[in-house]
Amino acid sequence: MVFESVDMWSGDLGGQSSPRTSARMLTEFGICVPDINNPGSTNTVECEFMTNESDRMLESWTFWNYHDMFDKSTWEFKPNVAKFFVRAYPSATYGTPHTLSFDVYHAVFDYSFYPSTDDLSIPTEIFLPEMHYPGASFHVEVSSDLRWEQTDTGINVYATASSSSAALSTVRVVPLSRSRP
């Protein structure tokens, strides 16, 4: 229902079935307090649904109930809660996004897009959080038409001469160690 409402109100902005003329954003969902160690809890299921559906619909979002993300005595992050919200994501795409997913339990990030090829020096920027990839401990797989380089906060992905704006390009990031705390 939430996403049907987003589609309904975004009709003036182009909606899902036509090219977007403006960005959309799901605001202020919250009150759920997920726990990576308790995947069956109602809170975890609710937050996981909202973030996964947002990824599936390429929807920006903000979570407003940050209070339970911190230990109230030290104000340090509670990693078992924060891992749901500190996610890998494309912060800028030079092209047209197609699909996005992030598996919070295994820190596997998948992204596909149709790259722009007008200027091969402009990157698609992907943020890879330290919380999921400590010490930049990740492995990157890109389709054969792309190249990538590491940055301070993730990776930049570039189209190459073999890229086509009509062909789907893919990026996958996995942690070097599949073990999760």
Content of β-strand:
25-35%
Largest beta sheet: strand ordering: 3-6-9-8
User: What name does the CATH topology of the largest domain carry?
Assistant: Immunoglobulin-like
Overall pLDDT metric? 84
Radius of gyration: 17 Å
Q: What's the total helix number? A: 3
**What is the CATH superfamily of the largest domain?**
Golgi alpha-mannosidase II
CATH architecture name of the largest domain: Sandwich
Please indicate the count of domains: 2
| SS-derived structural category | alpha+beta
Q: Residue ranges: pLDDT <50 for 5 or more in a row?
A: none
Oligomer: single chain
Largest sheet: 4 strands, antiparallel
- C-alpha geometry: elongated
Q: N-to-C SSE series?
A: HEHEHEEEEEEEE
Q: Class of the largest domain in CATH?
A: Mainly Beta
Distance between the termini: 34 Å
**Helix share of residues?**
10-25%
